[in-house]
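Run folding on both entries below.
>entry_1
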Amino acid sequence: MLEDEDIVDLERMLDLATPCCLWVAATLRIPEHIAAGRTGIAELAAAAGCDRDALHAVLGHLVSQGVFTEESPGRFARNWAAGQLAKIRQRLPSRSSAASLPTSRPARSASTC
C-alpha cells in the first residue's frame, strides 16, 4: 500500500504541453530558422508559415523548460537543447502528418497540438 508521500503526481505525468511544443518546434524547423538568422518572432512565424502569437506561446513555453533562450522580448536563440531538437527532427514524420500551429490563412484548417 502507498503512503501519502509515495503518491504519484498524475498532473505532471499527464501534462503534454512540453512534448507537444517540442514536436511543433521540430516539425516547423524552428532551430534551423534561428540558425539561419531568423530570430524575431515575426520572421520565425513567416518562415515557418504559422501564426505569430501561437508560435510565441510555444517558444515561450520551451524557453521556460530550457529549450531555446529569449535574448530580448520576441527574439529567440538556440541553446544546446535546441540544437539537439534540430538533430532529432530528421527522425520525425513530415510536417503534413504532424501537428502544426494555426496559420494566418483562414482557408487552411490546421490542428493544434
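>entry_2
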Amino acid sequence: MPKRSPATTLRKIDYIYKLAEFWDTHDLTDFEDELKEVTELVFVRGRDMKVHLSSQETQAVQKMAKKEGLSPEEIIRTWVLQQLARRNNDRRTSNKPRKSRTHQS
C-alpha cells in the first residue's frame, strides 16, 4: 500500500483538535519544503458564551449528551444552531410575498 505524503494527510484534517493531535506526533521541520506563507486568517475563533443551568438541568444535559455520544457543549451548540436555522428559515418564509387568491363568481 503506498504511503501518503504528509501534505496529503494535513489537507484532509479539518478539525483543530485533530490538527493538535497531529502536531503532537509530528515535527514542523518534516514539512519545511511544503510550507507557504498565508496572509489571511485560517482559523477564526468564535466567542465563548456561558450558559447558567441548575444542577438538575446540567445533569439532564449531560445524560442526553452521553446518550447521543456528544459532549454537553456539543449538544447545546447543536440545539442553538437548530434554533437559529429554524428562526432564519421562518423569517425567510414570512418575508416571501403571498400568492393572491382570486375568487371566481
